[in-house]
TrEMBL record:
Any one of the GO BP annotations: dicarboxylic acid transport
Matches recorded under PANTHER family: PROTON/GLUTAMATE-ASPARTATE SYMPORTER, PROTON_GLUTAMATE-ASPARTATE SYMPORTER
GO cellular component: plasma membrane
Membrane topology value: Multi-pass membrane protein
Protein name: Proton sodium-glutamate symport protein
Membrane-spanning residues: 12-30, 42-64, 84-104, 156-174, 195-219, 225-251, 325-345, 357-378
Alphabetical keyword list: Cell membrane, Membrane, Symport, Transmembrane, Transmembrane helix, Transport
Superkingdom field: Bacteria
Annotated InterPro entries: Na-dicarboxylate_symporter (IPR001991), Na-dicarboxylate_symporter_CS (IPR018107), Na:dicarbo_symporter_sf (IPR036458)
Localization terms from the record: Cell membrane
Record-level Gene Ontology MF annotations: symporter activity
């Protein structure tokens, strides 16, 4: 008996339709507070559904992956290699942003006094935390004093640290640990099943989130800063195709194939401006693509906090944009200082609301730009956030494949089966 399919249109197309409808409805209800409130509630509900399953998936997959790996030396090698890769790619992203900012000069033609002043009060408290977010704080925050408190507050890095330790401990018990490992594996399968259910609501969630953005700011908010938005997106596209593409080519990976395979997750990340929204499906898909469970469950969640290529590009470009708008000339030494500061402050900030905006707010004071200047781009932050989130997700997907190949943990047969299956669909 042939199974009847309820949805005849693919999820990717349904999400794109949701984006289109969100643009129309948002424009129609421009500055309508009732509509904005309703759309915001629907969008928040969808994001909360995603957040509900992210940490259970990370914990269950990581416990199983580490327990099956069972080799602390191997884990240490993978961890060191992953963090080094993340740091190198993020540094390239920041340097690219600074280079393009110096060449394109997006802030040079801006009359800063003609721009509408937005509110940055919602970011101020978090920015004070980010300003003190040095290397020592990052290291100290890795170890949780209370695992369940870290789990409850969604602190990814402390949760990963505890889960890795737990998985290694579990591996030392050999066959005695098999029932518990099987239980965690069952939990991960259940969570992925829940993910598939929740993803059917993605077009509705995307529609609401896009709609509320346009209803709040309107298309008019884009006009004064259109050049800056274009420069940001062009730089991110260059990073994906050229920088990430060259790195992928070294490992015999086609960057366009990666973009095609993860297109639904990238569209979801773009439309929701949330890496969390795409994380469960990315973890599932990289394993189907051929990456081992241990690599996927370690690299993807870690990259969520440490491999933010799109955010790094935006922060460096935005810092130069504001300096140019204020007619502040930055010397080479000041730009190198900015590079170092961004390399440190951007790490582990994914859990902070509006993380890229917060890091920018905490960073620009080091180059003499008034903190109030960030208000000039507050209105378009969400628009740029969509692009940088998609780049972050792409970077983490590629990282998992590269680390797997470097460790000979990439299943070529599984990859061939997955790709041939995709071609048949």
């Amino acid at each position: 008996m042939k199974k009847q399919r309820y949805f005849r249109i693919s999820l990717g197309w349904r999400i794109l339709i949701g984006i289109g409808l969100g643009l129309v409805v948002g424009r129609f209800f421009y500055h309508n507070q009732t509509a904005i409130s309703i759309l915001q509630s629907i969008g928040t509900l969808f994001i909360n559904l995603i957040k509900m399953i992210v940490l259970p998936i990370v914990v269950s997959c990581l416990v199983v992956g580490i327990a099956k790996m069972g080799d602390i030396k191997k884990l240490g090698r993978i961890g060191g290699k992953t963090l080094l890769y993340f740091e190198v790619m993020t540094t390239f992203a920041i340097i690219l942003g600074l280079a393009v900012g110096n060449i394109a000069k997006p802030g040079a033609l801006i009359d800063i006094h003609s721009l509408a002043h937005g509110s940055i009060s919602q970011y101020t408290a978090a920015a004070k935390t980010a300003g003190n977010h040095g290397l020592g704080d990052i290291i100290m925050d890795i170890v949780p004093t209370n695992f369940f408190a870290a789990l409850g507050s969604g602190e990814m890095i402390p949760v990963i640290f505890f889960t890795v330790m737990f998985g290694l401990g579990l591996a030392t018990f050999g066959k005695k640990a098999t029932p518990l490992i099987d239980a965690f594996e069952m939990i991960s399968e259940v969570m992925f099943k829940m993910t598939n259910w929740i993803m059917q609501l993605a077009p509705i969630g995307v529609f609401a989130l896009i709609g509320v953005t346009i209803a709040q700011f309107g298309f008019e908010a884009l006009k004064p800063l259109l050049y800056f938005i274009i420069v940001c997106y062009a730089t991110m596209a260059f990073f994906v195709v050229v920088v990430a593409g060259l790195v992928a080519r070294i490992w015999h990976i086609n960057i366009f194939e990666i973009l095609k395979v993860f297109k639904e997750e990238l569209v979801l990340a773009f439309s929701t401006a949330s890496s969390e929204a795409a994380l469960p499906k990315v973890m599932e898909k990289v394993q189907n693509y051929g990456v081992s469970q241990g690599i996927a469950s370690f690299v993807i969640p870690t990259g969520y906090s440490f491999n933010l290529d799109g955010s790094a590009i935006y922060q460096s470009l935005a810092a130069l944009f504001l300096a140019q708008a204020y007619h502040i000339h930055l010397s080479l030494t000041q730009q190198i200082t900015l590079l170092v500061v961004l390399m440190i402050t951007s790490k582990g900030m994914a859990g902070v609301p509006g993380a890229s905006f917060v890091v920018l707010l905490a960073t620009i004071t080091t180059i003499g730009v008034p903190a109030a200047g960030v208000a000039f781009i507050a209105g378009i932050d969400r628009i740029v956030d969509m692009g940088r989130t998609a780049v972050n997700v792409m970077g983490n997907s590629l990282a998992a494949v590269i680390i797997a190949k470097s460790e000979n943990e990439f299943d070529e047969q599984k990859y061939q089966q997955y790709m041939s299956g995709n071609e048949l669909k």
